[in-house]
Amino acid sequence: MQLISERLAMRPVVAQDRETLMRIYGDPATNSFNPAGPLANLDEAQQLLDRWIAHWQQHGFGNMALTQRDAPHAILGFGGLTLREFGGRPVNNLGYRLATHAWGQGLATEFARAMVRYGFEECGLQVIDAAVRANHLASQRVLEKAGFTVNGHVYDVPDASASLTFAITRAQWRAAQGTPQ
């Protein structure tokens, strides 16, 4: 399975993504707004990747590797839709992390829009949520451009301030697309 947008190609994560996952998720710069901090080593990257692959196997959707369409072997980042809990409430969470060289090009917004479309059209989800640190303005703008609105907050990282929560419903998305409910 592969998703294509204007500039991006997205495919489910695979075991061979471990080193790239470590490079991106282990980079302190990509974790500037992550109170948990970067991954420390390849073992942590492997554990995260194993959870992502298990999520795909259990739910039929999950995190993906993102590449540019014209450079399919160079991973720019990872992200996708996963089942999580926000304050004890189950949610379909949109998350992503891009390598620093991919920042500032509109790729996160393009990815978020592609994931929203995929979540509603292919996965049949009724709502998609996201959590963003209150001081991470760039990610907040990405979500807003993808149609999300702030709907609350959640204490999602122990001993850290709350994250803002965002959501978009299938009905909101369809209305913005001009598609009948």
Short overview:
The protein has 5 helices and 8 strands, in the order E-E-H-H-E-E-E-H-E-H-E-E-H. It is of the alpha+beta class and 181 residues long.
The end-to-end span amounts to 27 Å
Provide mean pLDDT, rounded. Answer: 94
Task: Describe the largest sheet.
Answer: 5 strands, antiparallel
Structural class: alpha+beta
Helical residue percent band: 25-40%
What is the CATH top level name? Alpha Beta
Strand portion, in percent? 25-35%
- How does the overall form come out from the CA principal axes? globular
Multimeric state of these chains?
A: single chain
User: Secondary-structure element order, as H and E?
Assistant: EEHHEEEHEHEEH
CATH architecture: 3-Layer(aba) Sandwich
Structural domain tally? 1
CATH H-level superfamily: Gcn5-related N-acetyltransferase (GNAT)
Number of helices: 5
